[in-house]
Design a protein that fits this description.
Blueprint: H1 21-76, H2 80-106, H3 116-123, E1 130-136, E2 145-150, H4 154-164, H5 167-170, E3 176-180, E4 189-194, H6 197-206
Antiparallel strand pairs: 1-2, 2-4, 3-4
Length: 207
Amino acid sequence: MHQQINFYRAEFLSQQRAFGANTMLIACGAIVLTMLLAYAFAAQKMAGIETELQIVNQQEVAAIERLEQLRPIVFAAGGERAWADRLDDATRALEEKQLVLGLVQGSKLGDTQGFSRYLRSLARQDFDELWLTRIRLSSLSNRNRLEGKALRAELVATYLQSLAAEPPFAKQRFHQLQIDGAEDGSGVVTFSMSSDDHLVAELADAR
Protein backbone atom coordinates (compact mmCIF):
# COMPACT_ATOMS: atom_id res chain seq x y z
CA MET A 1 0.00 0.00 0.00
CA HIS A 2 1.47 3.35 -1.04
CA GLN A 3 0.55 6.82 0.26
CA GLN A 4 1.48 10.01 -1.59
CA ILE A 5 2.08 13.24 0.28
CA ASN A 6 1.90 16.59 -1.54
CA PHE A 7 4.61 18.79 -0.05
CA TYR A 8 3.35 21.74 -2.04
CA ARG A 9 0.27 22.05 0.15
CA ALA A 10 0.38 24.91 2.65
CA GLU A 11 -0.14 22.79 5.74
CA PHE A 12 2.93 20.73 4.97
CA LEU A 13 5.26 23.70 4.29
CA SER A 14 7.50 24.96 7.09
CA GLN A 15 6.85 28.63 7.92
CA GLN A 16 9.47 31.04 9.26
CA ARG A 17 8.48 34.25 11.00
CA ALA A 18 10.34 37.45 9.93
CA PHE A 19 10.51 38.93 13.43
CA GLY A 20 10.21 37.15 16.68
CA ALA A 21 8.25 38.32 19.69
CA ASN A 22 11.40 39.44 21.48
CA THR A 23 12.56 41.46 18.51
CA MET A 24 9.22 43.20 18.22
CA LEU A 25 9.21 43.94 21.95
CA ILE A 26 12.69 45.48 21.79
CA ALA A 27 11.77 47.61 18.75
CA CYS A 28 8.63 48.92 20.46
CA GLY A 29 10.61 49.73 23.56
CA ALA A 30 13.18 51.66 21.50
CA ILE A 31 10.45 53.67 19.76
CA VAL A 32 8.76 54.51 23.06
CA LEU A 33 12.09 55.54 24.58
CA THR A 34 12.85 57.80 21.59
CA MET A 35 9.45 59.45 21.89
CA LEU A 36 9.96 60.02 25.61
CA LEU A 37 13.34 61.62 25.00
CA ALA A 38 11.91 63.88 22.28
CA TYR A 39 9.05 64.89 24.58
CA ALA A 40 11.46 65.66 27.42
CA PHE A 41 13.63 67.82 25.11
CA ALA A 42 10.59 69.70 23.77
CA ALA A 43 9.27 70.22 27.30
CA GLN A 44 12.64 71.63 28.38
CA LYS A 45 12.72 74.04 25.43
CA MET A 46 9.16 75.18 26.12
CA ALA A 47 10.04 75.79 29.76
CA GLY A 48 12.97 77.99 28.69
CA ILE A 49 10.79 79.95 26.27
CA GLU A 50 8.12 80.46 28.93
CA THR A 51 10.78 81.74 31.34
CA GLU A 52 12.09 84.24 28.77
CA LEU A 53 8.53 85.32 28.00
CA GLN A 54 7.88 85.98 31.66
CA ILE A 55 11.06 88.09 31.89
CA VAL A 56 10.02 90.13 28.84
CA ASN A 57 6.55 90.67 30.30
CA GLN A 58 8.04 91.85 33.56
CA GLN A 59 10.32 94.29 31.73
CA GLU A 60 7.39 95.62 29.73
CA VAL A 61 5.35 96.18 32.87
CA ALA A 62 8.29 97.95 34.52
CA ALA A 63 8.77 100.20 31.47
CA ILE A 64 5.08 101.12 31.40
CA GLU A 65 5.16 101.95 35.10
CA ARG A 66 8.26 104.13 34.59
CA LEU A 67 6.61 105.94 31.69
CA GLU A 68 3.53 106.62 33.77
CA GLN A 69 5.75 108.07 36.49
CA LEU A 70 7.58 110.34 34.02
CA ARG A 71 4.48 111.54 32.16
CA PRO A 72 3.45 114.13 34.81
CA ILE A 73 7.00 115.51 34.87
CA VAL A 74 7.06 115.84 31.08
CA PHE A 75 3.71 117.61 30.92
CA ALA A 76 4.70 119.88 33.81
CA ALA A 77 7.74 120.99 31.80
CA GLY A 78 5.62 122.00 28.82
CA GLY A 79 4.36 118.84 27.21
CA GLU A 80 5.89 116.19 25.00
CA ARG A 81 5.67 118.31 21.88
CA ALA A 82 7.40 121.21 23.61
CA TRP A 83 10.47 119.05 24.24
CA ALA A 84 10.56 118.04 20.57
CA ASP A 85 10.29 121.69 19.49
CA ARG A 86 13.08 122.70 21.84
CA LEU A 87 15.29 119.95 20.47
CA ASP A 88 14.61 121.06 16.88
CA ASP A 89 15.34 124.71 17.75
CA ALA A 90 18.57 123.77 19.50
CA THR A 91 19.63 121.66 16.51
CA ARG A 92 18.95 124.47 14.05
CA ALA A 93 20.80 127.00 16.21
CA LEU A 94 23.80 124.69 16.43
CA GLU A 95 23.84 124.18 12.66
CA GLU A 96 23.69 127.94 12.05
CA LYS A 97 26.55 128.60 14.48
CA GLN A 98 28.63 125.86 12.87
CA LEU A 99 27.96 127.35 9.42
CA VAL A 100 29.04 130.83 10.52
CA LEU A 101 32.12 129.42 12.25
CA GLY A 102 33.06 127.50 9.11
CA LEU A 103 32.74 130.62 6.98
CA VAL A 104 34.87 132.66 9.36
CA GLN A 105 37.59 130.05 9.68
CA GLY A 106 37.60 128.71 6.14
CA SER A 107 37.23 131.79 3.94
CA LYS A 108 38.25 135.41 3.60
CA LEU A 109 35.46 136.37 5.95
CA GLY A 110 38.01 135.86 8.70
CA ASP A 111 40.10 138.81 7.50
CA THR A 112 40.68 141.09 10.48
CA GLN A 113 40.79 144.20 8.31
CA GLY A 114 37.23 143.62 7.12
CA PHE A 115 35.70 146.39 4.99
CA SER A 116 37.68 149.16 6.66
CA ARG A 117 40.47 149.12 4.07
CA TYR A 118 37.96 149.67 1.28
CA LEU A 119 36.21 152.46 3.13
CA ARG A 120 39.49 154.22 3.91
CA SER A 121 40.46 154.08 0.25
CA LEU A 122 37.11 155.50 -0.80
CA ALA A 123 37.34 158.25 1.82
CA ARG A 124 40.72 159.37 0.46
CA GLN A 125 39.20 160.16 -2.93
CA ASP A 126 38.58 163.91 -2.81
CA PHE A 127 36.49 165.03 -5.79
CA ASP A 128 34.32 168.10 -5.31
CA GLU A 129 32.28 167.45 -8.44
CA LEU A 130 31.85 163.68 -7.99
CA TRP A 131 30.12 161.79 -5.20
CA LEU A 132 28.97 158.26 -4.48
CA THR A 133 25.32 157.45 -3.94
CA ARG A 134 25.60 153.72 -3.28
CA ILE A 135 28.39 151.39 -2.17
CA ARG A 136 28.22 147.60 -2.13
CA LEU A 137 31.26 145.71 -0.89
CA SER A 138 31.88 141.96 -0.71
CA SER A 139 34.19 140.21 1.71
CA LEU A 140 35.25 137.95 -1.17
CA SER A 141 36.52 141.00 -3.14
CA ASN A 142 34.83 139.97 -6.36
CA ARG A 143 31.36 141.46 -6.05
CA ASN A 144 31.90 145.13 -5.36
CA ARG A 145 29.70 147.80 -6.88
CA LEU A 146 29.93 151.60 -6.78
CA GLU A 147 27.24 154.01 -7.94
CA GLY A 148 27.38 157.79 -7.99
CA LYS A 149 26.97 161.05 -9.85
CA ALA A 150 29.37 163.56 -11.40
CA LEU A 151 29.04 167.02 -12.89
CA ARG A 152 31.19 166.02 -15.86
CA ALA A 153 31.61 162.62 -17.52
CA GLU A 154 35.40 162.86 -17.72
CA LEU A 155 35.56 162.95 -13.91
CA VAL A 156 34.42 159.33 -13.81
CA ALA A 157 37.50 158.14 -15.70
CA THR A 158 39.76 160.24 -13.46
CA TYR A 159 38.06 158.83 -10.36
CA LEU A 160 38.47 155.27 -11.59
CA GLN A 161 42.15 155.89 -12.32
CA SER A 162 42.72 157.33 -8.87
CA LEU A 163 40.85 154.47 -7.21
CA ALA A 164 43.04 151.91 -9.01
CA ALA A 165 46.06 153.37 -7.22
CA GLU A 166 44.67 152.33 -3.83
CA PRO A 167 45.98 148.95 -2.52
CA PRO A 168 42.55 147.35 -1.93
CA PHE A 169 41.44 148.24 -5.46
CA ALA A 170 44.82 147.75 -7.17
CA LYS A 171 43.96 144.22 -8.24
CA GLN A 172 40.27 144.96 -8.58
CA ARG A 173 38.88 144.32 -12.04
CA PHE A 174 35.65 146.08 -12.86
CA HIS A 175 33.76 144.11 -15.45
CA GLN A 176 31.12 146.77 -15.98
CA LEU A 177 31.26 150.56 -16.24
CA GLN A 178 28.17 152.52 -17.21
CA ILE A 179 27.74 156.29 -17.57
CA ASP A 180 24.31 157.79 -18.25
CA GLY A 181 23.66 161.42 -19.02
CA ALA A 182 21.04 163.43 -17.18
CA GLU A 183 17.64 163.58 -18.85
CA ASP A 184 16.83 167.01 -17.39
CA GLY A 185 19.73 168.70 -19.24
CA SER A 186 21.54 169.65 -16.04
CA GLY A 187 24.78 168.03 -17.18
CA VAL A 188 24.97 165.70 -14.20
CA VAL A 189 25.85 162.17 -15.23
CA THR A 190 25.09 158.96 -13.36
CA PHE A 191 27.68 156.22 -13.30
CA SER A 192 28.03 152.72 -11.93
CA MET A 193 30.93 150.25 -11.88
CA SER A 194 30.79 146.62 -10.82
CA SER A 195 33.24 143.76 -10.41
CA ASP A 196 30.43 141.22 -10.11
CA ASP A 197 30.77 139.09 -13.25
CA HIS A 198 27.49 137.32 -12.46
CA LEU A 199 25.69 140.66 -12.39
CA VAL A 200 27.28 141.65 -15.69
CA ALA A 201 26.12 138.39 -17.25
CA GLU A 202 22.59 139.01 -16.01
CA LEU A 203 22.63 142.54 -17.47
CA ALA A 204 23.91 141.19 -20.80
CA ASP A 205 21.15 138.59 -20.91
CA ALA A 206 18.55 141.21 -20.05
CA ARG A 207 19.64 143.26 -23.04
